[in-house]
Automatic annotation (TrEMBL):
PANTHER family: AB HYDROLASE-1 DOMAIN-CONTAINING PROTEIN, HYDROLASE, ALPHA/BETA FOLD FAMILY PROTEIN. InterPro entries: AB_hydrolase (IPR050471), AB_hydrolase_1 (IPR000073), AB_hydrolase_fold (IPR029058). Residues 17-192 form the AB hydrolase-1 domain. It comes from Imshaugia aleurites. This is AB hydrolase-1 domain-containing protein. Pfam families: Abhydrolase_1.
Length: 208
């Protein structure tokens, strides 16, 4: 989102007549929604996947809360290695997924990414160490203001609160369509071909 804001400043707000299809995955979904609400004249379409947004609060299960608690314990101890292993369990296998569901290749990639993220969180330079900034009023109260073609994706084995957030967004954004993938949180990493086919079909309307 900062790239587009800088682009606007560079060219001058009045000179910008381009419109963008804004795509956000995970935390990026909240940024995409916020941008669509703040700059509606610059948004042609919206894609949000396995994410959440300000003002929406749906509780996870007791089991899921315990998983996140273990992750927080590792972060508190400065243990990026075990925090990353826990992240693979949460975001890779999925809080609602069975043991052995995730391929080793995908799990290894997620582990490497999450080890770096966990270390930044321990150092106070990334992850949840950076507080989220919500719009006022919050995005959850303004989803019906989004008036562009919108598609929403969620992973079947993802955490409860994220899946409920995506269901809620699909219900509140006029005309939005919800797609559920047989994955956990990392939809495009687990099922790249299916995800790209789905995304290409959506983007085709802007290329005609």
């Amino acid at each position: 989102m900062d790239v587009i804001k800088e682009y606007c400043l560079l060219k001058g707000r009045a000179a910008v007549d381009e419109k963008f299809v804004v795509i956000g995955l995970s935390r990026g979904a909240s940024h995409a929604i916020d941008f669509a609400l703040q700059y509606p004249d610059m948004v042609a379409g919206l894609v949000i996947c396995a994410g959440w947004f300000g003002g929406f609060d749906f509780p996870n299960t007791t089991q899921e809360i315990a998983m996140f608690g273990r992750y927080d314990d590792f972060i508190g101890k400065g243990d990026a290695q075990n925090a990353a292993i826990m992240s693979v369990r949460i975001w890779g296998q999925g809080t609602q997924g069975d043991d052995g569901r995730l391929s080793k290749m995908v799990g290894d990639k997620i582990f490497e990414w999450c080890r770096m993220i966990s270390q930044r969180e321990i150092d106070g330079t990334g992850g949840s160490a950076i507080p989220a900034q919500d719009l006022t009023p919050t995005a959850a109260k303004r989803l019906s203001d989004i008036n562009v073609p919108t598609v929403v994706a969620r992973g079947r084995y993802d955490e409860t609160s994220t899946n409920e957030a995506m269901r809620y967004a699909a219900q509140r954004i006029p005309g939005a369509k919800l797609k559920e993938f047989d994955t956990a949180h990392m939809i495009n990493l687990e099922s790249p071909s299916e995800f790209n086919i789905w995304l290409d079909a959506y983007l085709d309307q802007f290329l005609r």
